[in-house]
Amino acid sequence: MFPWLNQVLSLHTVIWLLPIVFMFHDLEEIVTVEPFMRRNRMEIEKRLPSGIGKRLNKIFGMRTGSFAVAVGFMLLGVSFCTVWAGIALDQGGSLLPFAAALAVFFAHSFTHLGQSVLLRRYTPGVATAVLLVLPYSIYAYYRLFSADLLTWATAELGLLLGVGGVIPLLWLGHKTGTRLFKNGLDFE
């Protein structure tokens, strides 16, 4: 399968697929997270240690609109890293920001798998995590390593930078979304 994909997809296309796969994945989350949390809030609190379950319910118990704002912030970060990578491919620059975004996206898919295993059911985002995020991430890593554009050291550093960068971006997105929708932008 990889040889065929290598012929069909340029490296630029592989890089530009990141925000597209991200949008499909997060659309699944946006559409399903609020109703899922309403139905499963109590079970989540029971299955996780006391403080963690309540904290997750607070974070993921937000309205669909405020969650979408937080996802929008993440999309901006992913898009920035993708544009950077597109320019770096043409001009010989570093792909470290893209490596950071890809590492977090890849690792994020395992959180969805873990949630579904823990709860023994569908959880928001698991379908696209399995069908899109994991295959895309594996192929993107394969292409970047094959083209000698990524080393293990850069991939590891990317993961560290990605985790460090995603935390403030998520915080800002969640705070902004919560404020916007507390001030009457939620139409329900």
From TrEMBL:
Pfam families according to UniProt: HXXEE (PF13787)
Q: What InterPro entries does the annotation carry?
A: HXXEE
Q: Does the keyword Transmembrane apply?
A: yes
What keyword terms does UniProt attach to this protein?
Answer: Membrane, Transmembrane, Transmembrane helix
Instruction: Keyword check for Transferase, yes or no.
Output: no
Gene source species: Paenibacillus aurantius
* Protein name (record): HXXEE domain-containing protein
Q: Where are the transmembrane segments?
A: 14-37, 64-89, 95-113, 125-144, 150-172
Q: Please give the superkingdom of this protein's source.
A: Bacteria
